[in-house]
Structure formats: C-alpha cells, structure tokens
Amino acid sequence: MASEDVKPSESAVTTIVNLAEEAKLAREGVKAPSYAILSVAKSLTAGGVAGGVSRTAVAPLERLKILLQVQNPHNIKYNGTIQGLKYIWKTEGFRGLFKGNGTNCARIIPNSAVKFFSYEQASKGILYLYQQQTGNEDAQLTPLLRLGAGACAGIIAMSATYPMDMVRGRLTVQTENSPYQYRGMFHALSTVLRQEGPRALYKGWLPSVIGVVPYVGLNFAVYESLKDWLIKSKAFGLVHDNELGVTTRLACGAAAGTIGQTVAYPLDVIRRRMQMIGWKDAASIVTGEGRSKAPIEYTGMVDAFRKTVRHEGIGALYKGLVPNSVKVVPSIALAFVTYEMVKDILGVEIRISD
C-alpha cells in the first residue's frame, strides 16, 4: 500500500514540474521576441534622436562643405569656412544655413536602424567564423575584423538610404537663384524619377560604397580598438574603475571620425559631383573650362576623378575638408550627450559606437 501511495504522489509532482516548465517555456516563447523587438526599437530611437540633434547642430558646416565640393571653379563664391558661412547668411539668411537639413535628418533614423542591425549581425557572423577557425570560443573581434563588420554595415545602410542622400545633396546645393526649385525631399524624389529616371537616384553610388568602407569601418575599428587599448593598458591614468570618462570617450570618437573622414573624403567629393550630373538648373555646379562653361559630364567614377584633378588639381579632392573636419568634434560630442540622455530615459544599454 505504501508503494502504491507513493506512485501517485510522484506522478503528481512530475506532472506539476512538467506543467511549470511548459508554462515557463510558453512565457519565454511569447515574451522574449516581443521584448527583443522593443529593446531594439528603443536602441534605434536613441541613436536616431542623437544623430538628428548632432546633424542639425552642424548643419551649416555640412551645407558649406557640399557647396565647396561642387562650386564652379571659374566663379568662386565660397572661399573658406568663415567667409562661406557669412556669404550664405548674407545671400540666403538664417534658413539658408540649414537648407537640406530636413532631408538629412529624415534619412538618419532608417540609416541608423539598418546600420545597427547590419553591424550586429555582421559582428556575430564574423566572430562565429573567427572562433570556429581558431578553435577558441573565447576569441574576440580584432581591429581588422571590426573594420570588416563596420564596412558591411556601412555598405548596406548606404545602399538602403542612398536615394535620400542623393536628393539631400541637390536640396543643399540649390539657392534662391536656381532656375528650378525642389520644394522638399518627396518633391525632389518624384521630380528626379520623372525627369531623369530611377537610375539617377543612384548616381555616385559606387564611390559612396567604396568610401563608406574606410569611413564607417575605421569609425568602428578605431573607436573600439582605441577604447579597448586604453582600458587594458591603463595609459595616461585615464581609466577609473575599468571605465573611461566622457571626455576620453569623446576624444576616441573624434580620433576615429577624423581618420575615417580624411581617408574617405576624396570619394565623397566625387560622389557629390556625380550626383549633380543631369541637373541643369543647379546654380553653383562644377563647370568645365572654356567660354561656354557648360557643366562637366562624367562617364563614371574614374572619369570624374580624372577630370576633377585635370581641371582643378589634386586639391579639389579635398574641397570642404576644413568645415567637415571642424564639425567632427562637436557632432560626436552632441551625439554622445544626446544619446546618453535618451538612453537613460528609455532604459536601454548600448554602446555609443553602435
């Protein structure tokens, strides 16, 4: 009888345990995916807000950079950072300093979203393959592997949002004297599609993709590698409780941004110039030599490099580099501070480099 009494109780306990486990799995199965989606959405929101605020703060320098890149070499209007900003203020007023910024901010959120997701997936995939190859499950990403993951993320994000970047360049370049005016991002997109065809939305895509490899790749690689090196070596007494201060992180980000944009800058100049091909109403577009001063036509990236250097010299590949460099530090600083504030409000944990 005793044995018969034990069996039912054991069976009941087993049933209860099984039900508890099934309930736990059911809860995890339902809640884990939704929680992950919410977490990713919060992280992307934090990055998007930070990007929008930082880009808006340096919008005048961004616009001046693009104007310097594509201006007519026979009719110089913008002759430096200070003079260029004063000229824009005098001829177009306060709003002229922020022309094209709405489109720029509009592409930040989807760009950040795609870049974040792509970098995470690329990092996981590359790290998995690296661990399998080395046979070390504790192996971490090397600077070169970080460069590769960042490059993959940059290429995917650039390709996904390129049409918006293309029309942003045109909105930025047009002035009050332009014969034809784009009224906004969607008007510019529809007009380019109607007048120039779908392929026009991807003019300059190749140099953009090539340029994003060193730019985004170096941003990730330099920032994270420099930060890791400082923490491990405890150099210059900058590490406290195994953490870097805000000022040190900003310096790491500034170094990464400066190196990346300097290496990739000539490709950015060529990209902007190729984006202007086919737009006959640009007021300050690059023109060729001779009395006609007709806009230069490029057959491709290599041709654009060749004609730019031949007509204007090697220095033309770095037009606008100064205002672009000047904007790097405040842009990263504002992005970091804004990101931290939004992150605290939403309750998410994510690295500034992500």
TrEMBL record:
Membrane topology, as annotated: Multi-pass membrane protein
Solcar repeats, residue ranges: 38-125, 141-229, 244-345
Main location: mitochondrion
InterPro entries per record: MCP, MCP_dom_sf, MCP_transmembrane
Taxonomy, superkingdom: Eukaryota
Key words, A-Z: Membrane, Mitochondrion, Mitochondrion inner membrane, Repeat, Transmembrane, Transmembrane helix, Transport
One Pfam match: Mito_carr
Cited Gene3D superfamilies: Mitochondrial carrier domain (1.50.40.10)
Any one Gene Ontology BP term: transmembrane transport
Gene Ontology CC terms, in alphabetical order: mitochondrial inner membrane
Subcellular location: Mitochondrion inner membrane
Record-stated family: Belongs to the mitochondrial carrier (TC 2.A.29) family.
Name this protein carries in UniProt: Mitochondrial adenine nucleotide transporter ADNT1
Taxonomy of the source species: Eukaryota, Viridiplantae, Streptophyta, Embryophyta, Tracheophyta
